[in-house]
Specification:
The complex is a heterotrimer of chains A (about 230), B (about 80) and C (about 250). Chain A is mainly alpha-helical and about 230 residues long. Chain A is about 75% helix and about 0% strand. Chain C has helices spanning about 15-25, 30-50, 50-70, 75-105, 110-115, 120-150, 160-180, 190-215, 220-250. The longest helix of chain C has about 35 residues, at about 75-105. Classes of the chains: A mainly alpha (about 230), B mainly alpha (about 80), C mainly alpha (about 250).
Chain lengths: ~230, ~80, ~250
């Protein structure tokens, strides 16, 4: 069995404390936004989740390329772990965004570039999981999965662009203030601090989760090999 | 339609009560995260169980193949 | 490039070293020759059996007929949904063709034979993709006039034909690559559309928008962005497929 890590439990506790601290900051430190009311507070974790999702898919892309270059199964485990964590956090982003949109946009859903792209991304990576499930040979599974990660990742910006040619109503809080967007607001220093801290906390959480998932993948491979050895 | 929502808010100058949506949002965030942690935990536990069973089987196989040392017959049966 | 850093014992490449060398020696002319050979083989087989194109065609006509009832296509509604119907038909029929053309190779063991041949593997890919593209164009060439006839609308516009040419290139470029992956999976019949559709969404959106632009007689300024997007999609995915096809058939 893969050896237990001594750093990982420490990271678990750090992540837990950080998440609690960030939650506390969101509710008790950041001021309430005047136009939108309390619902604006989901913004901090909404964007942080989206960040983790993108981080996951980015890591998966790098791992996919690395796998094709080296054929080292380690990269395949990292890729799968990153995709899975990415899917979970992108799902959180989509659902929470939809809950925010109801009072602000007066609808649960709209086919805006960001929303649509996020949905298509979930579908790409759901297809990725189905591809893996359909192939038994581990080496071939890893190879195909890496190829599909690369293709899927390339299609995402093109999907975004294709829908961007229409007008968008999604707010861009960081960077430019597009006046046509609904639900934009100016961040006060306290809001900015809370936001930055949430991003940091979720990044730490990402490392912790992906680490756990990689260990799980490694254990699954060990069990698989053991089964194979016994069946011979 | 979207502009209207803003205008209504501006006219009232009062912050709308959207706390229900905020609570729903945070319930979703934490419950999805907990569900994922739970799934990681359950999968790990099942794999560990599998691993232990497989190791036991392997040990028994090794004993079977080895030139049988004098030992009770039942242990060789399985 | 596929053999770099691979453990020599477990690598499936090492056994094929001599072919790898032969492949390196192959020149541009033999690349083209191999590509045309693969394409010719597909066309000749199709001429004899006619099973792929006929299946795609019958399926397309069925889809068009079903849409007629599903959408209650009165003249006003029809004008706005024609390009959507056209592309949904083409995309579904295309999946059928892609799946079949790879499944034939796999089942008859042709794929393995092709891969053992001392030619550049990407030549095989381009040959297959070109064949699939031609099949789709044949289907489009029949359903365009047929649709025009059945619904009393003229679809034989130069612009629309250009969009169909561009859109199907990107579609078959990705589709051929993914179908080569899907046929090697246990769940191969259901896997191709699931893998393919999320990846071709940008090409599909651009094709539908550009087609309806031409059908509604919009200004070129409104259509141009979609054409640009289509061209970019085609270029990017042909290049990507070129780079990764080796990994899909490697063993």
């Amino acid at each position: 069995m893969p050896a237990k890590s001594r750093v990982l439990p420490v990271l678990d506790w750090i992540s837990l404390v950080l998440v609690l601290a960030a939650t506390g900051m969101v509710f008790f430190y950041a001021p309430t936004e005047e136009v939108m009311g309390l619902v604006q507070k989901v913004f901090y974790f909404h964007v942080a989740s989206a960040w983790v999702g993108m981080l996951g898919f980015g890591v998966a892309l790098v791992a996919g390329i690395a796998y094709l270059r080296t054929a080292n199964p380690k990269w395949d485990q990292i890729e799968l772990a990153a995709v899975e964590v990415g899917i979970v956090y992108l799902l959180i982003t989509i659902i929470v965004g939809s809950i925010w949109a109801k009072p602000i946009w007066n609808t649960w859903w709209t086919w805006d570039p960001r929303l649509t792209t996020a949905t298509v991304m979930e579908l790409v990576y759901a297809a990725y999981l189905m591809l893996r499930a359909g192939i038994e040979d581990t080496e071939r599974r890893a190879r195909f999965a890496a190829v599909y990660t690369i293709l899927g990742f390339i299609s995402v910006p093109l999907t975004f662009l294709s829908i961007r040619i229409f007008r968008t109503i999604h707010p861009v809080v960081i960077g430019s203030g597009d006046p046509t967007a609904t639900g934009t607001f100016a961040m006060t220093p306290k809001m900015l601090q809370t936001f930055m801290f949430s991003l940091f906390v979720f990044s730490v959480l990402f490392v912790d989760l992906i680490w756990h998932r990689i260990r799980l993948g490694r254990l699954a491979d060990t069990v698989e090999q053991l089964k194979l050895r016994l069946s011979q | 339609m979207m502009g209207m929502v803003n205008t209504v808010f501006l006219l009232n100058q009062a912050t709308p009560d959207t706390s229900g949506y905020m609570i729903a949002g945070y319930i979703v965030i934490f419950s999805v995260m907990l569900l994922y942690l739970l799934s990681l935990f359950i999968r790990r536990r099942n794999l560990e169980k599998d691993y232990e069973t497989l190791e036991e089987i392997e040990k028994m196989d090794a004993e079977k193949k080895a030139p049988a040392p004098p030992r009770p017959a039942e242990s060789l049966q399985k | 490039m596929s053999g770099q850093g691979v453990d020599p014992v477990s690598s499936p490449i090492t056994g094929l070293k001599t072919q790898e060398d032969a492949r390196q020696e192959s020149t541009g002319a033999s690349f083209l020759g191999a590509m045309i050979a693969v394409l010719w083989k597909d066309l000749a087989a199709e001429m004899r059996s006619r099973e792929v194109v006929s299946a795609m065609l019958v399926f397309s006509i069925l889809v068009i007929v079903i849409f007629n009832f599903a959408l209650e296509l009165d003249p006003q509604v029809r004008a706005s949904v024609t390009s959507g119907i056209l592309w949904v038909t083409l995309v579904f029929a295309g999946t059928l063709g892609l799946n079949r053309s790879m499944a034939i190779e796999k089942d008859r063991g042709c794929l393995d034979g092709l891969l053992l041949a001392p030619v550049d593997r990407t030549a095989i890919y381009f040959g297959k993709a070109l064949g699939n593209w031609l099949f789709m164009l044949i289907v489009a060439a029949i359903i365009l006039p047929l649709y025009s006839l059945l619904y009393n609308a003229n679809l034989l516009l130069g612009g629309l034909i250009l969009v169909i040419l561009l859109g199907t290139v990107g579609y078959t470029a990705v589709g051929t690559l993914l179908s080569a992956m899907a046929v090697q999976a246990r769940t191969r019949d259901i896997l191709l559309p699931i893998l393919l559709f999320p990846v071709v969404i940008p090409a599909l959106i651009a094709s539908v928008k550009a087609s309806s632009g031409y059908l509604q007689g919009l200004e070129m300024v409104d259509i141009q962005p979609w054409l640009n997007l289509l061209i970019a999609y085609d270029a990017i995915f042909i290049a990507a497929a070129f780079m990764v096809f080796d990994f899909v058939v490697e063993e």
